[in-house]
Amino acid sequence: MSRFKETVKGWFRRAGGRGGIGAATVVLIIALVVILNVIVTALATRYSWYLYTAPRYEHEIGDSSETFFSDLDQGRELKIRFCMAEEKLEGDSAYRLTLETARQFAEKYGFISLDFINIVVMPGNVAEDLDRYKYGAAPEIDAETGKKIKKNAISESSVIFDAGGNDYTVATLRSFYILDSNQYVTGYDGERVMSALIHRTLAEEHPIAVFTMGHGETSSELLYNILICAGYEIRTVDLAKEDVPAGTALLVISNPLYDFESSAVGSGIVTETDRLASFGGTVFTVLDPLITDLPHLNAYLAGWGLSRREGTVRDMTNSLTPDGYAVSTSFSQSDPGRAIRERIRAFSDADVVLKRAAAIEVAPVEGVTASPVLSVGRSASVWADGKKVDDAGEYAVAAYATRNDGSDVFLVSSVYMTSSDAIRSNGYANADFIYAVLEYANGAAVPLGTKVLLIKTDTLEGVTRGIIRLTLAILFAVIPAAVVAVGCVVRVRRKNR
Question: In a 3-state reduction of DSSP, which class is residue 161?
Fold first, then answer.
């Protein structure tokens, strides 16, 4: 112990010699900075301190709404009414985008105007309007209570699209933004949503889209939102009990787990496949490639010249992932393929991306014109149960069939078609592809070509707080301490040589 003390005393005596005071000062400053960093980091972790400067995001609307609004009576006046004060909206880093988009629409179209409602201090006409928004122009009365039935809740975050009478739509400011599972804003989709709300409010009629139920169907919320933005009125149908509702333009079969019912020919029993076969509109079919035990539904699709192959497509050359299953597709040279491609390319050069898609065989059927729409490249192969079962390449992964009576079927066998990563991105054309298919099938204008503004986030996913603390400790304590120790050793050796 005495020898150690003598060594320490000798070190301090040498530190006081020539240049020693400066070295000691540097060591002291570094030590203080390290200690201060550790203290501030601990406090910031404990009390969630942070320094934040909000970036100013900008978004300009494009020309997609010109086609979307072409079927509207633009002689009618529509007001976009914010229930939040204008100065408060302008001061909000996120909600300001909605105000700017509304201003751009009002500047572009003469039939659109803006105003702001004070829902706290209300003049008589504003109070009447708010009452109309809450209960409707012709309020319904609850038979038991005798009170008016409220249809909408109005708050400071409400945005109202009003064309007079019962032609109004109530939305919230959050409706224009993309939120993650923790309800944090990750993107702004205001152009698409606002154009859809304007169209929905002014349109004389809304096409009906009906989702089948009773077979374990699971539907992407994003597909539902796409149909809403395209102007569809959404309903459901159980084909085991009822016919497809009259006036239905689009029948959606979304990822069923179980098969549709069928019966023997001549039995006289009307089953689900009978009701499918008699439907005269568009059947929009999205199937899971791993769910293949659907003989009756597969037979129905085969009647349209469309058959799924078992297994999934893999392309190591054109894949976006190391496993080769997330493939970038190309448009086929069929009539629907060229028409859909032309509409998308007017706004975007992005490709449609599918993950774990089943190959689709297109065969001739009398009275039916079946065509591939999306295909993969020559380097693609089909894999099933971990083995390659075919390597011919150029498989169709989305197809379209039309009958002479005007009814049609669209088929894709990949649940990734409507995934969040593929839809809420400007890098992929999946959303525009679905809109283009709907437009091609029904001829109705859609909000195709709008852009999503991605909001920068610094969220770390899959990292525990323990790992974060360990990382901070290494960055702010261990590494600086190691630097100081090495510096001291070098300094001492240089003094003693």
Answer: strand
3-class SS at 422? helix
pLDDT in tens, 259-272: 999 877 666 788 99
Cα 7 to Cα 13: distance, rounded to the nearest angstrom: 10
C-alpha distance across the termini of the chain, in Å: 26
Instruction: Estimate to the nearest angstrom the gap between the alpha carbon of 145 and the chain centroid.
Output: 41
Place of tokens 């400011």: 173
Helices 20-47/2-15 angle, 10° precision? 110
Predicted structure pTM score = 0.78
pLDDT tens digits, 176-202:
998 877 777 888 999 999 999 999 999
Tokens of 388: 């390659």
What DSSP designation does 242 have? Answer: S
Q: Is the dihedral of CA 20, 21, 24, 26 positive or negative?
A: negative
- In whole angstroms, what is the distance from residue 182 CA to residue 175 CA? 16
DSSP codes joined into one string, 76-91: S-EEEEESS-HHHHHH
Give the mean pLDDT of 56-72: 89
CA-nearest of 70, 79, 143 to 117 is: 79
Q: How many residues does the chain have?
A: 497
What is the DSSP pairing of strand 177-179 with strand 208-212?
unpaired
* 119 Cβ contact list (under 8 Å, min separation 6): 83, 126, 130, 154, 155, 156, 158
